[in-house]
Input
Amino acid sequence: MEKEIFIIRHGQTDYNNKGIIQGSGINSVLNDTGKLQAGAFFETYNHQPFELVITSELQRTHQTVAGFLGNGIPWVKLADINEISWGKYEGMERNEETIRVYDEIVSAWKAGDYSARPEAGESAEELSERLQRFIDLLKKRPESRILVCTHGRTLRCLMCMLEGRDISNMDEYAHENTGLYKVHYRDEQFQVSLKNDLMHLAQVS
Output
């Protein structure tokens, strides 16, 4: 069965705007810019005959696709596509410590050490394990056109996995707020045809 899957990152939050670490433990909401981004995405893609919407369990993803949900499209919320947990650093502003820890962990992931994690947080290995469950679910779902809304780090890791690349490459994937990745599934293979597309934001000042 062939499928077309639209995968987007949630709209902007005040945490994004201020450089505050979110992660899976921060259930933030969209700010005014994020609402405009979500509205622009809806206006651009409302004509798509989506049969299913999948979001994380965090409300910033729910708000981003609220227009589609208002159309009565079936909706599934999955913890498996929540943002990665940044542990004790969630809710903290960027400072010398948080920048150092972030850089150390991301450098470890790039070097292939997927067990690296922030204190009380989640590793890339754990993130990829739950994303594999999500990918297996996508393959099994009967719907042929699906809209997915998730988070930045999660999206980066997911795209590596869908393209069959090692997750050490995940920082190569741009992930702007409401940036669209379009993925086709056929013959048991995923193929990405559009990456971080922001065409819909041309109308947002």
Summary: The longest strand covers residues 189-197.
